[in-house]
Specification:
The complex is a heterodimer of chains A (about 450) and B (about 675). With about 450 residues, chain A is of the alpha/beta class. Chain A is built from twelve helices and 16 strands. Chain B has 21 helices and 25 strands. A seven-stranded antiparallel β-sheet of chain B has the order 10-14-17-11-5-23-22. The chains are: A alpha/beta (about 450), B alpha+beta (about 675). At the A-B interface, helix 2, helix 3, helix 6, strand 5 and strand 7 of A face helix 4, helix 8, helix 9, helix 10 and helix 20 of B.
């Protein structure tokens, strides 16, 4: 009951603080701080002269607010978004502001806004925040920082306010905005605000410009080395006419622009120095096999963050295996069983990343449905990478069936933290190195280490 | 070009110093404020800056917090709640180290996490902007101004200087899109309204105080007037009695029935008010033993210790009936009147006294004709009751017994009165109709009834001691224990007659707050603390809390030692290659670009922390020769970071040439281009 009441208050406090952030300039915040402090100390006018400071601050704020009631200037806004963004990687876009009026406009602030959904009480109490372990007991007990973190995650990031360069009459200006998407999936922009300060520079007049837009954010990518799965090249019936060569080579293919997740060692330093932007070397690997990448979506009672990490690991392998001259089948179960094939002209890796950006945890089916999906296609596969969120009997039996079918299988299991006990290889007892535990607090290093060690 | 800042700007030159001097002047710390202000403002002339690490900032912030905490404890313990203004007045001292480290630190700002310990662990999370850098100079200035207000001197002059300082701050943050005249007009208007407002606030406080004082006197604290006592007879609704503990009583033996502590007795009744026609007080001669006054030569058999809080110097003291002497009291004078009321003159605040008493021997003045007087308008009612209860032909002892029995058998105790009657009819209603009322009804009726039956009687008010506190191991008396009873003159002496049904005690407790025990604990701790402090003051010349101050120097020394011993950053981590004297010489650190950087910084164009070279040049607004700058950056990066180190020499020569060219022609051009001094303000110390 008290917690529920607190939660309602938190939502109120959050709304008030957001309103204050939008409305008050830094000078205004200072005056408001002075107003509150002098209000406390000035309550007894006989004891101190703080009430004079209170009167001055209150009067200044009053006039500042009054002068922002009218904001006549009108603008036309247009947002230019890139095709993709990546979670956890700074992302830039432009916003063009057109001034159709006769007056030069300056001293303006642009506040771009993502659609915000405040969590309900159920979501608030059931969602755990990994950052909680770094917070003190009071913050953890009260839960307000967790609420802020949750709102931030739901929204998908925090876009900083930007100063708008002067916009001459009948002209336009562009504002570069950069922020870090906090999650994968679609970010929805709702509106942008143009703010104008009052003559005293304390309070802002705001004009809202509805500007709905959406931006796809790809999952976070970890740098992983290429994973050479053992596997026989099999005869594929039809659909592989693009296969031009058979064999292995480390032949230099081309240079291309750096993409997040590319290993550092493939950067071509000379070209980097020449162009000023990172460029990577691309080699042509002439393996020709069809590999499977199975993603476990059955979150059950576990933390949602573990699923997010599983998606990131899957995306990282998807990107790493893209360069191989082979087909890659991404398989997972959502509201139904899915298999997406990429490589050799079938589909671009970017499309698969888009799929991964939108994959949701499966709540209405059991892990057996993934097993049946894998076994349905087992004959076509040369090797399999499984990204699992648990290593229970169902999942072990899934891996056992793949091993029994003669499919070389590497299993990555996400575990809570580095201190968790080691995993029993189970069906992988002959090749225990193919069972890799990825602790949540150390995924990046573990992945790099493991993929380098896996000399299969 | 100036634009709206999304972060607080640094304070304009001399403002911090002015704020500190203003504070020093107002609070009497001018001797300290002058060097403090000079040291801060000197930073604008000095180029010396120290590398202060985040850890050191955190430590300074923690020291300030700790000092603040210790001072709060010390000042509150010595000055009580009034110490809040003393704390306010020394706040600029407490935070001075922090602002000093910011001003002389290389960064020129501090991280938000320095001020909030809870943010420190969250620093890696950059998405939530936890690492935000803030400039403390304007908040510190505001603190100085608010602290200055605690000086409470010359309101008009304070207001004038306040307005000037506020105008300087607002001028520094004003948006350039408005004409300065508009700004000035609006500011003048605001300040005029503020002046009117502050005058109004002062007057409003005066009015509110008057109203509150009235309410306080009426309901919260019952001053006992020895000449007059208004009763709640005739009041409508439920009588709300306070749960506040007013007295603490320690007795040498457990009383058989609730002990009554009298404050005053009255003889005349009229329209719900008891009064005395004349009650002259006479001084009681003190004994030879200090702090001892004898009221009667016979010694009482019982003794009692009473603790109470006096808010006036002269107040009526609650005492048991038949008090023979008062001792162990820190009083100037004790006086009493003919009706047994005793008044003590002493310091206000907590007071404790012991009294010997003998309840059976009440030495009040003998009865006079007023003690037999029944008001004309009530006489008919009481005579009727005398007849009904057949009191005419009985002796005094029997009358009292009958009255007590009848009241306890046929009347009920109640704190509610829901009926409205014409003035003067309340007692009639109580006696014949409702037969319900509180102690004042019972006592008043009994006095008048006894008088009608021919027994002299007086109305007495005070407290009933009935609640033993296990926590305090003594009796506590609350506001709700206020009681009234009767003194009847029987067989040549005064006797206590209490006709209120004993059920009144649990009934009065019925609506006790669930939190009463918590409040009691707090009240007891406050009482113990106050007693401890008073005792210490009496016993020792020096206030014992001074020893807290002795904790400060060793603590400060320890913290300063920690600060000194804390790990310094390695010199090799400094961004400027010229300073790179460590053994970890990095490749490319002899790049000519560093000359350019140094020269630009010498000209006052400072680079922000973490700012890339390209972003810096862009911010500086170089337009002509922009290509040259970009070319230099590109060559610098190749020379600095290319692991293959191809054409290293040619790149270096090329870079040297470009930098020489920029230095020869570029800098004056930049100087001309940069008309806006705001960019220079990003630096820690402008030239």
């Amino acid at each position: 009951m008290i917690r529920k009441l607190l939660f309602r208050n938190f939502r109120f406090i959050y709304r008030v603080s957001r309103w204050l952030r939008y409305r008050l300039t830094p000078g205004g915040s200072l005056i408001l701080g002075g107003l509150v402090a002098s209000g406390i100390f000035g309550i007894d006018t006989r004891q101190s002269l703080a009430f004079q400071i209170f009167a001055v601050c209150a009067s200044l704020m009053l006039f500042a607010v009054l002068t922002t009631l009218i904001f006549r200037a009108r603008f036309r806004l247009r947002r230019h978004l890139p095709e993709y963004a990546t979670a956890g990687v700074p992302f830039q876009y432009k916003l063009r502001i057109e001034n159709p009026g006769r007056r030069r406009q300056y001293d303006l602030l642009l506040i771009d806004e993502l659609t915000e959904r405040l969590p309900d009480y159920q979501e608030f109490i059931t969602t755990s925040d990994p950052k909680d372990k770094n917070r003190n007991w009071l913050d953890r007990a009260i839960g307000y920082p967790r609420l802020i973190s949750l709102i931030h995650k739901n929204r998908g990031g925090a876009i900083p306010a930007r100063e708008i360069p002067p916009v001459p009459a009948y002209d336009m200006a562009e504002v570069d905005i950069e922020f870090v998407p906090a999650r994968r999936g679609y970010l929805n922009f709702s509106a942008a605000y143009i703010a104008r300060p009052d003559p005293l520079g304390l309070f802002r007049a705001l004009r809202k410009y509805p500007l709905p837009d959406s931006q796809l954010v790809l999952p976070r990518i970890y740098p992983v080395s290429k994973l050479n799965l053992p596997g026989k090249r099999k005869y594929r019936q039809g659909g592989l006419s693009l296969a031009s060569q058979i064999g292995d080579s480390q032949e230099f293919l081309s240079l291309r622009e750096y993409q997040p997740g590319d290993p550092l060692r493939s950067i071509h330093w000379r070209s980097y120095a020449k162009y000023g932007e990172p460029v990577v070397k691309e080699y042509q690997d002439e393996y020709f096999v069809r590999q499977g990448l199975a993603l476990d979506t059955f979150i059950e009672h576990r933390n949602n963050n573990i699923f997010e990490e599983a998606v990131s690991v899957a995306a990282s392998f998807q990107l790493a295996m893209e360069e191989q001259d082979s087909l890659l089948d991404l398989m997972f179960v959502g509201n139904r069983a899915y298999r997406f094939t990429s490589g050799r002209g079938f589909g671009k890796s970017a499309n698969i990343l888009e799929v991964l950006a939108c994959v949701e945890p499966c709540k209405d089916q059991t892990p057996e449905s993934l097993e049946s999906l894998l076994l349905r296609h087992v004959d076509e596969l040369s090797g399999m990478v499984m990204i699992l969120m648990d290593w229970d009997s169902i999942r072990r039996s899934m891996a056992a069936k793949l091993v029994a079918a003669g499919i070389p299988t590497i299993v990555f299991v996400l575990i809570e933290d580095s201190s968790s006990p080691g995993l029993d290889p189970g069906p992988l007892y002959e090749t225990p190195e193919r069972l890799v535990a990825l602790p949540m607090d150390n995924i990046e290093t573990s992945l790099q280490k493991m993929t380098l060690e896996l000399s299969l | 070009m100036s634009s709206i800042a999304t972060r607080l700007r640094p304070a304009p030159p001399l403002l911090l110093g002015a704020g500190l001097l203003f504070w020093g002047w107002q609070t009497g710390f001018l001797v300290y404020a002058i060097p403090m202000a000079l040291l801060l403002e000197l930073s604008r002339l000095l180029r010396w800056r120290s590398t202060v690490t985040d850890r050191e900032y955190n430590l300074i912030s923690d020291i300030s917090g700790l000092v603040f905490f210790i001072l709060v404890v010390y000042i509150f313990s010595s000055d009580g709640a009034g110490g809040i203004y003393k704390i306010l007045s020394i706040m600029p001292f407490i935070l001075y180290l922090l602002i000093l480290s910011q001003v002389y630190g290389e960064r020129g700002t501090i991280r938000l996490s320095v001020l909030f310990i809870s943010l420190r662990k969250l620093e890696p999370d950059k998405t939530l902007d936890m690492n935000r850098e803030i400039d403390l100079s304007l908040p510190y200035f505001l603190l100085c101004i608010i602290s200055a207000s605690s000086g409470n001197r010359e309101p008009v002059l304070f207001f004038l200087i306040l307005c000037i300082l506020v105008a300087v701050v607002l001028w520094s943050v004003r948006p350039r899109r408005y004409h300065p005249l508009l700004w000035a007009g609006l500011l003048a208007l605001s300040l005029s309204l503020a002046y009117a407002g502050q005058t109004g606030m002062k007057q409003a406080q005066r009015s509110i105080e008057m109203i509150l004082m009235d309410v306080f006197e009426k309901y919260m604290w019952r001053y006992r007037d020895p000449d007059r006592a208004s009763t709640a007879i005739g009041s409508l609704g439920r009588i709300k009695l306070s749960d506040r503990i007013l007295l603490r009583v320690d007795t040498d033996k457990i009383p058989e029935k609730p002990l009554l502590l009298r404050e005053a007795s009255y003889t005349n009744y009229g329209y719900s008010v008891w009064s005395n026609a004349s009650s002259e007080f006479q001084l009681v001669d003190p004994d030879v033993t200090p702090g001892s006054w004898t009221l009667q030569t016979e010694k009482g058999k019982s003794s009692i210790t009473i603790n109470t809080y006096k808010i006036k110097e002269v107040e009526v003291a609650p005492l048991p009936h038949g008090t023979t002497s008062i001792y162990d009291i820190d009083a100037f004078d004790i006086e009493r009147n003919a009706y047994g009321t005793v008044r003590i003159e002493s310091r206000d605040g907590w007071i404790s006294y012991r009294a010997d008493y003998e309840t059976d021997r009440i030495h009040d003045a003998p009865p006079n004709r007023n003690d037999l007087h029944v008001p004309e308008r009530l006489r008919k009612d009481f005579n009727q009751l005398v007849r009904e209860w057949q009191l005419e032909e009985r002796n005094a002892a029997e009358i009292i017994q009958t009255v007590q029995r009848n009241f306890s058998e046929h009347y009920k105790y109640s704190l509610n009165n829901r009926s409205r009657y014409p003035r003067g009819r309340y007692l009639h209603d109580f006696l014949f109709d409702s037969k319900k009322g509180h102690c004042e009804y019972f006592a008043t009726s009994t006095v008048l009834l006894l008088r009608a039956a021919g027994i002299p009687a007086r109305y007495a008010v005070g407290y009933s001691v009935n609640e033993y506190s296990e926590l305090e191991e003594q009796y506590v008396v609350r506001g709700r224990d206020a009681h009234s009873w009767v003194l009847a003159h029987v067989d040549g002496s005064w006797r206590i007659v209490d006709t209120t049904p004993p059920v009144w005690i649990p009934l009065a407790r019925k609506n006790t707050s669930l939190l009463e025990s918590v409040f009691d604990l707090v009240a007891w701790l406050k009482y113990r603390y106050a007693r401890w402090q008073t005792d210490d003051n009496l016993e020792e010349e020096i206030n014992n809390t001074d020893y807290l101050l002795w904790l400060l120097p060793p603590l400060l020394l320890f913290l300063l030692w920690r600060l000194y011993r804390s790990k310094r950053p390695e010199k090799s981590e400094q961004p400027v290659a010229g300073h790179n004297t460590g053994h970890r010489e990095r490749h490319g650190s002899d790049s000519a670009m560093y000359q350019l950087i140094t020269r630009l910084e010498q000209h006052g164009y400072y680079r922000r922390p973490g700012e890339t070279l390209a972003a810096w040049f862009h911010r500086l607004g170089v337009e002509s020769g922009y290509k040259q700058f970009m070319q230099a950056i590109e060559l610098h990066y190749r020379y600095r970071f290319d692991p293959a180190r191809n054409d290293e020499n040619s790149i270096r020569l090329h870079l040297d040439r470009i930098v020489d060219r920029i230095l020869a022609t570029g800098l004056p051009a930049i100087d001309q281009q940069l008309t806006e001094p705001a960019d220079r303000r990003d630096q820690p110390s402008p030239n």
